[in-house]
DNA sequence: CTGTTAGCGCTTTCAC
DNA sequence: GTGAAAGCGCTAACAG
C-alpha cells in the first residue's frame, strides 16, 4: 500500500491543501517545503494520478490509435510522438488496430473510457465514423500521416500527391518515358501517391499502359511481386516509381534476385527513406518524410486543443518532403 | 460532459448500487436490466475507468517499458503482447526508453504514478535497480526477451545461448571449420548468443581467431561493417554466424554490395527470422523466435500475478527456438 | 500562505 | 435483488 497525501500530512503536520499546493508547484513556506520533501522521500510517495485525474478530469495521457504497431513505419514515427508528448508531461496509451477496422472502432471506446485527454490516430479506415464517439465526448483528435475521405479533423501529413509528382521530375528530367508505378491501392497514402504519379505523367504527355500500373497492398510482397511482374514484361519500363517503404524493399529484393542491376537495367525512385537504403547499392533516390516534424507537429496541434481548449476549425497540415539523391537513375 | 452513473439513476429511478452491479455483471431483475441498457444507449454512457480505478485500485492497464519503440523487433513482439492483453480486457501504456537508461528509470516512476496493474519490460539496462520502485510499490513485473544480470524477476525469453549453439550445428555438420561471428557486445541477447557460438566452437575443438570475433552493437551498421571486415581478411572464414536481425540485414547488404554470392562464396546462419528473409535469395538459415508465444506467455505470467496476487518465486522461462532451413550453407 | 470542507464517479459494505 | 451511505486519493474553492 503506497503512501498517500494523508501520510505526508501525518508526518509533517500540514494540511492536505498545503501539500497538494506544493505538489502542484504552488508557493509554500521554505520550511514547509523542506518538511514535505523529506516526507516524500521517506515514504517513497508518488502522486496517485488516478485520483488526481478524477478530480481534474485530466489524465495527462494521450491515446494513440495506430493502424498496425507491427509495421516498421509505426515505430519510426511513434518514437517522435512519444518524445514530444513526454516533453509536455504526457504519456501514450497505445491501442493497436491490427489493420482491422472493427478493432479500431472498439479501441476508440476503450480510449474514451480511459479518459484520455486527446487522441492521435494513424487510421485503418478511410472513413471517419469510428471516431464519432470520441468527437462527441469532446476529446480532441489529430490524424497523423493518413487523412480521411469524409470527415474533417486536424491532420498532419505530407503532401503525398505533390511529393510523388515531384519525385517523377527526377526521372522525367533524365528523359525516361517508359515509367511504371507500384502502389498500394486501398490506403490513403498509396492512392495519393499513385495520383501524383499519374499527374506527372499526364503533364509530361506520357502514356502509362495498364501493365505499368501495378496496384497492390502496402507490403513487401506487393513490391516483390510487382517488380517481378514488371521485369517479366516484353516491353519493360526503363524506370519504376515505388510508392512506399515496404514496396521499395520488396522491389529491390526482386531486382537483386533476378540479377538485374540498377541503374543500368532499371532506374528507381522510392518513397519513405529508411536507414537500410543508406547502405544499399545503388543508393535509391528516395522521398524522405519529415517523421520527427510530423510527430512533433501532431503533438503540438493536439496540445493546443487540449490545453487552450481551442475549438477553431480543423486544419490539415501538409508538410513538404525532401528528395534524397541517389545513383539509381540512368540518364537516357 | 459525458453521462455518469447518476444520469442513469435519474433516468431509471434505480439506485447507484444496482446500476453499478449491472455494470459489473451482477444479477439484476430483467426489467431493470432493460431500463439500464436503454439509458446507457440513450445517454451514450461509457464507464469512467478513472473513477472505477480509484476505488478498485485496479486500472486494467499494463505498463510496457520498451527499450526502443523505433526498433522493428519491438513492434513485432508488442503486437502479440497487445493482442493478448486485449483478450484479458487490459490495455497497454507504452513508455519508450529510447535506448536510454535514464529515461527508462524515469518511465518506471511514471508508470507507478499511473497505477498500472503490472509492467512488462524489455530492458535497456542490464542491471535491475531501475525497477526497484515498482517492485517496492508491489507492482508485478515480467521481463521479456532480455534478462537482467543481478535481479530476479519473472522473465520470458528464448534460450539464446542454446539456440546459438544449436544453430552452429548446421555449419559444423556441413564441415565448416573457419567460422566467424558478428554479435552485439553489450546487450543481453548479443552476449548470450556470442557465448553459445563460442561454446559450440569449443566443443567442436575449433579455434576462433580474434579477427573472426566481430563484436559491435545491435545495428544494421554493425552487421554491414562487420561483414565487410570479414570479407576483407586474407584468410576469410567460410561461414558467418550473424546474431540478430539488424546484423543479418547489414551483413547481407555488404555481401550483395561486394558482389559475393552465398552460399558459394560464404555460408550464412542468422538470427531473428523476419518476413524479409523469406523472399531473399539465398534463403538464409535462420533461428526463429516464437514471438507470439513469447508475448502471450509474458502476458499470462503477468495476469497470474495480477489476478491471483500470486507471490511465488520469480520464474524464468526460456522458450525453444526453431531453425528455418534455407540454402545459404555450402557443404564443405 | 494555510486549513477546512466538499466532491470528482464509481464500488462496496450492510441493511432491508 | 435493491438502496443508503461511506470512501478511494486527490484538488479546489473559500475563509482565515
What this model shows, in words?
- 2 copies of one chain form a homodimer.
- The first copy, chain A, has 332 residues and is an alpha/beta fold.
- Chain A folds into 3 domains: 5-56, Orthogonal Bundle (434 Repressor (Amino-terminal Domain)), CATH 1.10.260; 61-157 and 291-317, Rossmann fold (3-Layer(aba) Sandwich); 160-289, Rossmann fold (3-Layer(aba) Sandwich).
- Helices cover 45% and strands 17% of the residues of chain A.
- Chain A has 13 helices and 12 strands.
- Chain A has a 6-stranded parallel sheet. A 6-stranded mixed sheet of chain A has the order 7-6-8-9-10-12, sandwiched between helices.
- In chain A, strand 6, helix 9 and strand 7 form a beta-alpha-beta unit.
- In chain A, helix 1 packs across helix 3 (30-43) and helix 10 crosses helix 11 (245-258).
- The first copy, chain A, is elongated.
- The mean pLDDT of chain A is 93.
- The interface between A and B is large, with 57 and 56 residues.
- Strand 2 of chain A pairs antiparallel with strand 2 of chain B.
- The first copy, chain A, binds a DNA duplex (16 and 16 nucleotides) through helix 2 and helix 4.
Query: Which structural category do the helix and sheet elements of chain A fall into?
Result: alpha/beta
CATH homologous superfamily assignment of the largest domain in chain A: Response regulator
Strand segment count of chain A: 12
Q: How much strand content do the residues of chain A show?
A: 15-25%
Amino acid at each position: 500500500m503506497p503512501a498517500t497525501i494523508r501520510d505526508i500530512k501525518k508526518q509533517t503536520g500540514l494540511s492536505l491543501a498545503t501539500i497538494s499546493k506544493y505538489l502542484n508547484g504552488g508557493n509554500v513556506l521554505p520550511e514547509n517545503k523542506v518538511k514535505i520533501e523529506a516526507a516524500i522521500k521517506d515514504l517513497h510517495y508518488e502522486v496517485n494520478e488516478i485520483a488526481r485525474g478524477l478530480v481534474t478530469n485530466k489524465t495527462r495521457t494521450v491515446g494513440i490509435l495506430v493502424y498496425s504497431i507491427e509495421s516498421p513505419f509505426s515505430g519510426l514515427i511513434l518514437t517522435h510522438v512519444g518524445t514530444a508528448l513526454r516533453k509536455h508531461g504526457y504519456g501514450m496509451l497505445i491501442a493497436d488496430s491490427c489493420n482491422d477496422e472493427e478493432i479500431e472502432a472498439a479501441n476508440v471506446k476503450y480510449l474514451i473510457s480511459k479518459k484520455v485527454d486527446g487522441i492521435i490516430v494513424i487510421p485503418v479506415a478511410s472513413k471517419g465514423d469510428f471516431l464519432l464517439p470520441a468527437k462527441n465526448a469532446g476529446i480532441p483528435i489529430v490524424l497523423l500521416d493518413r487523412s480521411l475521405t469524409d470527415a474533417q479533423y486536424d491532420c498532419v501529413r505530407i503532401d503525398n500527391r505533390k511529393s510523388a509528382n515531384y519525385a517523377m521530375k527526377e526521372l522525367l528530367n533524365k528523359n525516361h518515358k517508359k515509367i511504371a508505378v507500384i502502389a498500394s491501392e486501398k490506403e490513403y497514402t498509396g492512392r495519393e501517391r499513385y495520383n501524383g504519379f499519374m499527374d506527372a505523367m499526364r503533364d509530361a504527355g506520357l502514356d502509362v499502359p495498364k501493365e505499368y500500373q501495378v496496384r497492390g497492398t502496402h507490403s513487401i510482397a506487393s513490391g516483390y511481386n510487382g517488380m517481378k511482374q514488371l521485369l517479366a514484361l516484353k516491353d519493360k519500363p526503363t524506370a519504376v516509381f515505388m510508392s512506399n517503404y515496404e514496396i521499395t524493399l520488396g522491389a529491390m529484393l526482386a531486382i537483386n534476385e533476378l540479377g538485374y542491376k540498377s541503374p543500368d537495367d532499371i532506374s528507381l525512385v522510392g518513397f519513405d527513406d529508411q536507414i537500410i537504403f543508406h547502405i544499399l547499392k545503388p543508393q535509391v533516390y528516395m522521398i524522405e518524410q519529415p517523421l520527427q516534424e510530423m510527430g512533433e507537429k501532431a503533438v503540438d496541434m493536439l496540445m493546443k486543443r487540449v490545453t487552450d481548449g481551442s475549438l477553431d476549425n480543423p486544419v490539415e497540415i501538409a508538410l513538404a518532403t525532401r528528395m534524397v539523391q541517389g545513383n539509381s537513375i540512368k540518364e537516357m
